[in-house]
């Protein structure tokens, strides 16, 4: 992806010469105008009633579902997601919309008796007005919708600034929403850093997903303005494998979590920690990674498609060459024009090595061992991020001890670090997240403010 002369261009990472979209960037003035238009209609949207908002979200789900094959193909071509995963993302997007279509009917507060005297004391949630959403390219439908749907359900209007490599997906999603929403209730503003900054400066509530560096800047800018903000900023996710785990099944799960969609998920496994003898797991994991199908994302058998850009592919290869022992991978896929890297596993790394401490967004992970569970948990926690972790064991007590002690927002037991349930809160600890959780009922709280009203009888 490149943006030149105020133009946003996205490419097919499997066939870099293919341009998916070429569209003018919105510009700062354009973003502010979009927010102003949204704000002018926010009261009407909020006061139109729960039934209107619920019906609109149901209708949006119907539109996305009807366009499912088209959208899956677009996701696969624009961001290189294997077609099987792309179809799954479309289905998930529909399910998220249907879930939040029910939420306008939820209670918006509670009623209490005043401490003294006759009357009424109640709380009531109300929308902020305009939600500014800044979203990444790796889930070009699901993440915009899991932010937009609760914002819309609670009566906010939405202005969405997608990542540049996913612009075609966002524009198509916006067209489908335009068919069922009033004008300016949801607006897509293509662009880059300038447009993102303008949206943070002008929206009433901000939700961001992306890199740690950009997320910190978003949080700082929004906080300075007193704007409510949440930010999800990635992870350095560990998988702890105890000796009693099913090694074959665990290796297969870990391989998919490391290299599925070329490792381009914030919940992807980036570190594997074997408790006790590392040999059996190491050998099984190398075999499982080498068995993954790498190549054209249009093929239903493909698990690991291209990286999003040449720079991203080169960063993975550079990390593999920067120290340690490459157990498998560490090289590009020869003879293909796309930006591919083979699934990679590296061991014998120093504790503070890049792969052990920082998220490299690609199909690469660090392998290490620990003498016991306590040491493994300490190693898993010894990083700045804390999004997800997995524990693989037949020992329920050990699994529960890990769940209590891991510094992460998500803990999976005998399941991969990847994958989240959209009806439950999502977010991390430490540098992974800032602000309230996303998804589930927690999102409804984030996109609303609570008023307490005291109503007493006249004297």
- Main beta sheet: strand number and arrangement? 7 strands, mixed
Helix/strand/pairing category: alpha/beta
Termini Cα gap: 68 Å
Largest beta sheet: strand ordering: 13-14-15-12-11-17-18
Spatial shape = globular
Q: Just name the CATH architecture of the largest domain.
A: 3-Layer(aba) Sandwich
Strand content: 15-25%
* Radius of gyration of CA atoms, rounded to a whole number: 23 Å
Please, how many domains? 2
Q: Approximately how much helix is present in the residues?
A: 40-55%
CATH fold-level assignment of the largest domain:
Aldehyde Dehydrogenase, Chain A, domain 1
Summed up, the helix count is 15
CATH superfamily of the largest domain: Aldehyde Dehydrogenase, Chain A, domain 1
Total DSSP E strands? 21
Mean pLDDT reading:
95
- Stretches where pLDDT is under 50 for at least 5 consecutive residues are 1-5
CATH class of the largest domain: Alpha Beta
Could you write a compact summary of the structure shown?
With 459 residues, the protein is of the alpha/beta class. It contains 15 helices and 21 strands.
Structural features, described:
The protein is of the alpha/beta class and 459 residues long. The chain folds into 2 domains: 2-233 and 432-456, Aldehyde Dehydrogenase, Chain A, domain 1, CATH 3.40.605; 237-413, Aldehyde Dehydrogenase, Chain A, domain 2, CATH 3.40.309.10. It has helices at residues 27-47, 50-66, 68-79, 83-101, 142-153, 167-178, 193-202, 212-225, 247-259, 279-291, 310-320, 354-357, 373-381, 396-405, 440-446; strands spanning 2-4, 7-12, 15-24, 111-112, 119-127, 130-135, 157-162, 186-188, 205-209, 229-232, 237-241, 269-275, 325-328, 344-347, 364-370, 385-386, 388-392, 410-413, 429-430, 433-434, 448-456. A 7-stranded mixed β-sheet has the order 13-14-15-12-11-17-18, sandwiched between helices. A 6-stranded mixed β-sheet has the order 8-7-6-9-10-20, with helices on both faces. Strands 1-2-3 form a 3-stranded antiparallel β-sheet, with helices on one face. α14 (396-405) links the parallel β17 and β18 (410-413). α3 packs across α4 and α4 (83-101) packs parallel to α5. The radius of gyration is 23 Å and the shape is globular. The relative contact order is 0.14. Residues 1-5 have low confidence and may be disordered.
């Amino acid at each position: 992806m490149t943006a030149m002369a105020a133009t946003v261009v996205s490419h097919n990472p499997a066939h870099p010469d293919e341009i998916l979209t070429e569209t003018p960037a919105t510009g700062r003035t354009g973003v502010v105008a979009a927010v102003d238009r949204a704000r002018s209609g926010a009261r009407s949207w909020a006061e139109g009633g729960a039934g209107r908002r619920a019906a609109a979200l149901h209708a949006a789900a119907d539109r996305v579902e009807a366009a499912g094959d088209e959208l899956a193909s677009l996701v696969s071509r624009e961001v290189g997601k294997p077609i099987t995963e792309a179809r799954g993302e479309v289905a998930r997007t529909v399910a998220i919309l249907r879930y939040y279509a029910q939420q306008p009917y939820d209670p918006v507060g509670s009623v209490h008796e005043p401490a003294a005297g006759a009357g009424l004391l109640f709380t009531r949630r109300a929308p902020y007005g305009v939600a500014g959403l800044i979203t990444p390219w790796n889930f070009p439908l699901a993440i915009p919708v899991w932010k937009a749907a609760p914002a819309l359900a609670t009566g906010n209007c939405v202005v969405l600034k997608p990542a540049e490599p996913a612009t075609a997906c966002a524009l198509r999603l916006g067209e489908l929403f335009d068919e069922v929403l009033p004008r300016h209730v949801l607006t897509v503003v293509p662009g880059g850093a300038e447009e993102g900054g303008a949206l943070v400066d002008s929206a009433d509530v901000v939700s961001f997903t992306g890199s740690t560096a950009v997320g910190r800047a978003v949080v700082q800018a929004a906080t300075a303005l007193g704007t409510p903000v949440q930010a999800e900023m990635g992870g350095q996710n560990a998988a702890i494998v105890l000796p009693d785990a099913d090694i074959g099944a665990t290796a297969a799960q870990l391989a998919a979590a490391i290299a599925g969609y070329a490792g381009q998920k914030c919940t992807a496994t980036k570190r594997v920690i074997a408790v006790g003898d590392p040999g059996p797991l190491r050998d099984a994991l190398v075999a499982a990674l080498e068995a993954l199908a790498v190549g054209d994302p249009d093929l239903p058998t493909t698990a690991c498609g291209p990286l999003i850009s040449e720079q991203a592919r080169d960063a993975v290869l550079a990390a593999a060459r920067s120290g340690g022992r490459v157990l498998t991978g560490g090289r590009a896929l020869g003879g293909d024009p796309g930006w591919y890297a083979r699934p990679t596993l590296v061991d014998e790394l120093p504790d503070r090595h890049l792969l052990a401490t920082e998220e490299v967004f690609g199909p690469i992970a660090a392998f290490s061992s620990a003498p016991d569970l306590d040491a493994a948990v300490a190693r898993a926690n010894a990083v700045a991020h804390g999004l997800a972790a997995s524990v693989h064991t037949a020992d329920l007590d050990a699994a529960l001890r890990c769940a209590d002690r891991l510094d992460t927002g998500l803990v999976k037991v005998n399941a991969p670090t990847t994958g989240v349930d959209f009806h439950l809160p999502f977010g991390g600890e430490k540098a992974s997240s800032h602000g309230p959780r996303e998804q589930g009922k927690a999102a409804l709280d984030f996109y609303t403010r609570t008023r307490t009203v005291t109503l007493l009888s006249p004297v």
